[in-house]
Write a structure and sequence with these properties.
This protein has about 375 residues and is of the alpha+beta class. It folds into 3 domains: about 80 residues, 3-Layer(aba) Sandwich (Rossmann fold), CATH 3.40.50.20; about 60 residues, 2-Layer Sandwich (Dna Ligase, domain 1); about 190 residues, ATP-grasp fold, B domain (D-amino Acid Aminotransferase, Chain A, domain 1, 2-Layer Sandwich), CATH 3.30.470.20. About 30% of the residues lie in helices and about 25% in strands. The chain has 13 helices and 17 strands. The strands form 3 sheets. Strands 9, 10, 11, 12, 13, 14, 15, 16 and 17 form a 9-stranded antiparallel sheet that branches. The protein has a 4-stranded parallel sheet with strand order 3-2-1-4, with helices on both faces. A 4-stranded antiparallel sheet has the order 5-8-6-7, with helices on both faces. α1 packs across α10 and α2 packs parallel to α3. The relative contact order is 0.12. The mean pLDDT is about 95.
Length: about 375
């Protein structure tokens, strides 16, 4: 399996903040980078060698970028298969189109997880309104109904409290295939990041402990304050999953720790992930550098946590408030860093950046970053 050395060219499908941060790490390692994104002002545009402005469904543009690259990867999984396959004709695509085809459809994803014996909560894929109503009844009434395709940062899913709310959920989600998941009694939400190279080398980061508000990640801790047996089990599940999928690149496994102690898989993301932004300040190797190493078949970096860290997301709501964010208030705080994504258009709920903080413990890091967020008006 060919190794792509510094000086080579990496192509990224997607130019959002994850792509931008991957580009900056690739630059540090001496790579050239190209990107493709439908937004002419995408965050990665300002840091790449070339940016192709094209819809993700434009297979010709994907192929054009791939011709100029030694490897192609992605920062968002919602790339049509035709574009993925077009790129793969001209350069290695990591992760593969087969991985993306499974992950892109919640029904297929859950069916794969079930077939391979990974633990999940009760669920059912349904294709019409009446089937959804009866499924909600069978699952106990309280469910999360999620579109099989699409959806991001809490979009594409509707909580229902009883079968009477099922018809509205069906209409709200576009009257197309959905997955109904039984609502569970959660003790914690966590995620595990696995890096896997084409040569089969793996590296697993400690689980992150995550807190969501309105189904968008609000803050995250690394390493998560979890019992050792939970950390061990979560790590084993994620590593086994990456190997079963033969992932080349990154795989993040979102999990639920239930109040009864069970650990269940929620969803998969074969790309850098919001819950591991803290690796930039906590670990010897950030998730973004690790992504570059993995897709280039280079030796993977150490995942050692040298100091606990926490992040808080900064949403567009903050920019829409009177006077906007006062960044000077947080830049003077010890142990706190500001990370902005270069987005020009602030909208409610849109991720514009994040704050990170380090501490002697995860709890101290969280207290610092939350104090900084409060100073900004979060």
């Amino acid at each position: 399996m060919k190794t792509i050395l510094p000086g080579g060219t990496i192509g990224i499908l997607g130019g959002g903040q994850l792509g931008r941060m991957m580009v900056l790490s690739a630059r540090t390692l001496g790579f050239q980078v190209q990107a493709l994104d439908p937004d002419p002002a995408c965050p990665a545009r300002w840091v790449v060698d070339q940016c192709y402005t094209a819809d993700f469904s434009d297979a010709r543009a994907a192929a054009q970028m791939a011709r100029a690259c030694d490897v192609v990867t992605l920062e968002i999984e919602k790339i049509p298969l035709a574009s993925l396959n077009a790129a793969a004709e001209h350069a290695p695509l990591r992760p593969s189109a087969a991985v993306l085809e499974m992950v892109q459809h919640r029904g297929r994803q859950k069916a794969w997880l079930a077939k391979n014996g990974f633990p999940m909560g009760p669920w059912q894929e349904v294709n019409d309104a009446e089937a959804l109503r009866t499924t909600v009844v069978a699952l106990g009434g309280r469910c999360f109904v999620k579109s099989c395709e699409g959806g991001y940062d809490g979009r594409g899913q509707v909580p229902v409290k009883s079968a009477t709310e099922a018809p509205q959920a069906w209409r709200e989600l576009g009257e197309r295939a959905v997955v109904a998941e039984q609502a569970l009694e959660l003790q914690a939400e966590l995620s595990v990041l696995v890096a896997r190279s084409p040569r089969g080398e793996t590296a697993v980061y400690p689980p992150a402990f995550n807190h969501h508000e309105e189904r968008i990640l609000a803050w995250s801790l690394l390493p998560g304050p979890l019992p050792p047996e939970v950390t061990k089990k979560a790590t084993e599940i994620a590593r086994d999953m990456a190997n079963a999928l033969q992932v080349e690149g990154l795989l993040v496994v979102e999990m639920f720790l239930l109040k009864d102690g069970r650990l269940l898989v929620n969803e998969l993301a074969p790309r850098p992930h919001n819950s591991f932004h803290a690796t930039e300040v906590a670990c010897l190797t950030s998730q973004f550098e690790q992504a570059v190493r993995a897709v280039c078949n280079l030796p993977l970096g150490s995942v050692e946590v040298v100091r606990p860290a926490a992040i808080v997301n900064l949403l567009g709501d903050l920019w829409l408030s009177e006077g906007g964010p006062r960044f000077e208030q947080v830049l003077s705080m010890p142990g706190v860093r500001l990370h902005l994504y270069g987005k020009r258009d602030a909208r409610k709920g849109r991720k514009m950046g994040h704050l990170s903080a380090v501490g002697a413990t995860s709890e101290e890091a969280l207290a610092r970053v939350q104090a900084a967020a409060q100073a900004l008006g979060v």
